[in-house]
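It is worth pausing here to work through a concrete case rather than discussing structure prediction in the abstract. The textbook approach is simple: state the sequence, then state the predicted structure, then interpret. We follow exactly that order.
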Amino acid sequence: MSPTAQEMIRTDAGPPASVLLAVKVVPGARRSEIVGVIELPDGPRLRVRISAPPEEGRANRAVCELLAEYVGVPARDVTVAAGLTRPEKLVRFAGVDEAQLREKLGDKPGEKPGEKRG
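Step two, the predicted structure:
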């Protein structure tokens, strides 16, 4: 994993054991997908496009569901920890450590291991 991608992930101090992932969400997209890493002034973030609109928490729920499926954890274990009403969010993964999340994200976030984009 690139140093940039590593900077997006950090351990959450609060119980239960969990990690935080910095995310930039683009709601109202044609389809929901993980695009890759984007550099912002406050650091790198995983860029995620979501088809749900940013209304009544729909986009937040869609982000959690997409990331849970991608990482392979139950959706109930993924929540928005900060940035509920902003595109820049911190997403919490409960019961996952930094090494597990880095392994799941791989070297190219947005591309699962063995998957090739063309």
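Step three, interpretation. The first helix runs from residue 3 to 7. The first strand starts at residue 9 and ends at 12.
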